[in-house]
Structures
1.
Amino acid sequence: MVRSLTRAAALIGWARREYGGLADRAGTVGLWLLIVLLLVVGVVDARQYLVTGIIVGSIIALGALGITLIYGILKFAHFAHGDMMMFGAYIALAALVGGGRIGPLSFGWGMIFAILLSMTVLGAGSVAIDRVVYRPLRQRGSSTVILAIASLGVAIVLRAIMLLWWGPDQQLYVSGIHPAREFPFDIMLKPDQIFIFATAVLLMAMVYLLLFRTRMGKAMRAMSDNADLARVTGIDTEQVVMWTWIIGGALAAVAGILLGIQSNLKPELGFTLLLPLFAGAILGGLGSPQGALVGAMIVGISQEVFVGIDLPFPPFGVPGYKPAVAFGILILVLLVRPRGLFGKT
Amino acid sequence: MTVLEAREVVSGYGEVEILHGVSIKVEEREIVTIIGPNGAGKSTLLKTVFGLLPCKRGAVFFGGEDVTGQPPQAMVRKGMCYVPQSDNVFPSLTVQENLEMGAFIRRDDYRSKIEEVLALFPDVMERRHTRAGKLSGGQRQMLALGRALMLEPRILLLDEPSASLAPNMVQLVFAKIRDINCSGVSIVMVEQNARESLRLSHRGYVLAMGQNRLEGSGESLLESEEVGRLYLGD
Amino acid sequence: MEKGRLVAFLAVAAITAGIVGISANDSASLNGFISFLTVFITTVAIFAIFTLGLNVQWGYTGIFNFGIVAFFMVGAYTSALLTKGPSSSEFVKYVGGLNLAEGLGPLNLHGLTGFVLGALGAAVVSGIVAFLIAIPALRLREDYLAIATIGVAEVFRRLAIEEEGLVNGTRGLTGIPRPLHDLVSPPDYKFIYLAIAVIVLLIIFVAIERGARSPWGRVLKAIREDELATAASGKNIFAFRMQAFVLGAMIMGIGGAVYSANQGSIVPDTFSHFFGTFIIWAMLMVGGSGSNRGAILGAYVVWGFWTLTGLIQPHLPAALETRTSYIRDLLIGLLIIVMLLLRPHGLMGEEKRVSLFAEQKTKRKTPRVGAPAGPTEV
């Protein structure tokens, strides 16, 4: 039995090698077609879900952006990112003072302050974690696998701290019911959701400006291309690493907070978030910031649309299957175009 | 003035020793070429001098100062720049951005320097906003040279600048190297294309099996029968 | 290596002393004390099975599986569905129910045959799942496989919860048959199960040890130490790694089977990332990657530590007591980090073998700028 399994695997490998180029092109075309199909179905038949998906997608995008930057520059898969997002959400919860509301939003100016504080804490905290955990391993020449396992340890620690401090139960930023408002095309949106989307877009724009218009941002892209050449050129690679963590941590904080506004906070959710985050980053192409944004959006939209459409078999119609959709996307990408939409070969 | 000197350098990769005590000297404003068969340790020497590899024994002097074992970032600050053989540009950055990265450690306004460097390579200048990954092999090599010039180095270390280039490109690259040298930059390069590079050089060294074999002026090495037979394929 | 063995010995001694001491002190009776220890060892044995499975994947092959809980869960549910009889009530719905525990007539052996068949079934299904995941993911990068395994775990949990008819949803499966349970009175059953768990552990241990020394195992070792050379000699690297991954998953499946029969009932919530994946990584990191004895040692040390802190808990002032379980969680995470920083091979990781392995798997593979790696270039 083992031998036939091996033979099957070898056959698949051979098929891949023989028809690789053709398969790659076919896979790419197929993938883009599916994406177009998804959007068309969304617009035509599931507008509400499409819109929710865009909101959720923008949250995932902030997280996926951090993951792809860390992967591109530090060359390892950061498995603590989901818990870091959750941690950021909890810091904001702790920092949230005063009530009041800004206009139609469910929270007051205290939330803006809490967001900024959380971004700072997580940015600095990420650098600290790097100094204590990842840098020593890096200096020893540890492989990306070891770093990934270390990040698992960090994830466990973060989760435990959240459980210790805030307990395992679900929490909300603001209780009460917040009504949605009507918009054209039969779309219902809460004002909070518009805030979420606007904030996410604002941050994406800031990151874009950073990466393409500042010296440090270009150095980050350079290091992502070729870390050894960056060193040879004289770029201060440790400084680049520091900024990568600051940005990754800050983005994670905002993503977590926005997620908390959108739904709720719960320590156990952190690890599970890794699935849509990585699915988005991998779909877009690990290492490509634009890819992370596009990939995350598609994952967000897919999750909402698939689960919204009412068909009698799974995963349609069952909210519990949203992670399954992300997983499905991940497997699909790995099968047809592993380098993602914008990845380099 | 000897701008660069390597004295009895012993180095290699991990446990494996490649160089068993190699010495070279580069005088101010010289072009020095290092040739030899594969495995001789030519690239290893450059990397050790630049601090990419640890120097197990021996010493490296730059402008009279002992810089043995200092990391690349320090060398760059002192005025020594290195151009690797391959993967020597940042593919997803534009030409302009590549040059900007070359000037990363500069604190002053280097915009005029960018124009100056681009003027040296008009073919590349036309494509200043193209991503480096889309350039041809020759253009990339030019860009790599240009990037190293952004810091106005005293000496350039070039690892096989003509590698995998078409013959007309090779001529162009060597012409550019001569121009750069004329502007006052010392050059030490490792080359497989022994004939062309020796023609260009003031002096040359022949390395084999991790040791010095021959040295002399570019001309004398070109004319030497031994060199011709063993290394130039005559 | 001396220091490692010494620390290992001290750790085991300290933990054993602590557990025996405190439980003896707290137990109302000798019976209670012995019961407690029996349950403790049984749990260690079950965790050790998972850790051995992870060792085959990570220690021997360098694949990191962050979704161990998926195979754990698949194994547990598969064996339960195979050994249980069909549902006796319309409120309890699940597939399978092949009643292997009692339906085999004279071959029953008091449920032992059913148990073994259930465990084998668990192994097969886990193996198939592993195989399916490995096809897209293993060929690419280990990182991809890691995230894929997390995904599988999530998907299975959701399936179990959402599809009511599959495994009875959140209510779970109860009445999972226990082998040989009708041979003794219920309070004494735990001793039999201890024996069963330990025997399964030993069988797996011996099988892996022999596998490691077999030609197959030698090729795996060769792949670890010099992948390029092994590939050049014509071995299909992917096939070997796939086999190791599937084998490890099958072992985890068996662990799940042993677990579910021990528990008697399982619900989706039982299978958390923490107890199904995280803690097992801690066990392997502590005990020693690449060493089977280390895997078992790690299971003992980490679970022993967990149990010990659990024993201490009631003795602490009330304020600390409620949060202690999360402090333990924290320490598990720190344990992984600290082991990686201080002693990546764990307490018993064989330095000679593992260090070559560590050289390969823990060192960067990216070549220095401008040239291919190694001494062949000039």
2.
Amino acid sequence: MTVRFIAPLAVLALLAACSSPKKADEAPAEPVAKSESESAVAQPDASDAAVSAGMVGDASNNPVGLPSELVNRLVIYFPFDSDAISSTDVDLLAQHARFLNGKSGVSLRLEGHTDERGTREYNIGLGERRAQAVRRALALQGVAESRLTTVSYGEERPAMGGEGEEAFAKNRRVELVYGVN
Amino acid sequence: MIDLLRRLGVKGWWIAMLVLASTSTPAQLKIDITSGVTDPIPIAVLPFDADPRPSADVVAADLTRSGRFSAGAANRSDYLVTGRHAVTVDGRHQIDYELTNLLTGQKLLRERMVASPSAWRNAAHRIADKIYERIVGARSAFATRIAYVSVDGRPPAQRYQLIVADADGENSRVILESKQPLMSPAWSPDGEWLAYVSFETRSAAIYVQRVRTAERRRVSGRAGVNNAPAWSPDGKRLALTLSSPAGNLDVYVLEIEGGALTRVTEHPSIDTEPVWSGDGTRLYFTSDRGGGPQIYRTEPRSGATATRVSFSGNYNARPRLSPDGKQLAFITRDGGGYRVAVQDLGNGSVSVLSKGPQDESPGYSPDGGTLIYAARERGQGVLATVSADGLISQRLKADRGDVRDPAWGPFLP
């Protein structure tokens, strides 16, 4: 299982980029200036460091202070071609919502994924649907929308390689990635 | 090297990118012809006189790879290619070649091809194109390029490279490298630029990058989904997919200069994977508004109606139009999994051209004779081609890692 806590600096950069969600009808972003480009290229390193830093149950790598019963439960799995959340996971998300509602200065990024079957770009749509299903479940539990961001990786970032149903099931998921504001 | 780049006027982070790109060796592709026509034309390509490079081998390999020819000895061939490859005092490569019909003795071609030192392969590909067209009577696309994504390492820690190579997989070079996913490369109509999706900032954005110089800019980095870029035939606009804050995907058209954005579809389903008709008046796209994904046609403006185009089966997605606009290639799901299918837009008939089980990202060669797509073979991501008539198929395998997301570039001037 992947458990990831984003390094605070990366979170700041991420939130700066995402804090004002644009409506699709607004004018698009101007071409990036050079200084912005520098940070865009440098950032993958920052986030990759965060990936390897995440250690289950290690307080020094748990900057958000996630309770121990949630540290290992940061992935929601889905059936094939579905964005339905199981009742067990609805309960799990309610626990995450309670944590978020009782803790300021913490944000949550919802990363939607699919298995490798089907076309890549359509799978981006299916991954987004899963991330949005989790977002709605948390919002129903009172989590402020401003604390939640979504990203869909479609089939581009599998948790597990291989082509069997075991790998497919592990890859149809939404990962909950906590960050410190 | 950095000093040299600075003197050439390359500044700032471009240097970092160029250095990064030049230090990593792309995975090498190897071609296997898995089936060809039953009766290929025998042709002999003799080594070129004074050849400083294996250019005659490149010509013979191109012709063989087409599946229409078999290269062999002159006494068993219908056609003969001879040549002389000279390097001029100013360093340019000059290939004089002849094509002879051995049955009639007639000289069919007698020409000179001149190229800069780094372009000798391209000169050989152009010679193969000339020979193919003279004998077969149709255009080939040996002197074109492909772009694709190479992925190395085990999940979840993978490394992604965007690679440009000659159509035979040779001459490959990395034009972008990231530890976050890269996907959906798309060539501009003039072959100068690639648009693609990069997650390098840990959110999705669409970039356009000049292939020769690595100059690039972000053209769409909105909150949510930025995906599936497709160039308009005039090269001035991109069709693309964006999402609303609630996560609804729709197709838009973006003016690359100036940034004006037009919303084309407006439907609570997934609308994505747009592609332009050759005259720029239509967009084909995937939508699951009818339940499963199907292909629809609309116009690149707001408020246009969408008409369903695909009808056979319950999964048809990621359309690409043939260069003559008469056929639509896409991925269809049937008993064998996900396969490349081609639909005749005149009479609606559908043929399945690949064997699955997990084929993706089909696209036409610029001559329309071949489709390239991604496949999985014994757990490895490979590129594959199949002739539009389904007779000739090939695999392009990397020596390591997965390759996928191919895009065949246009004819070059």
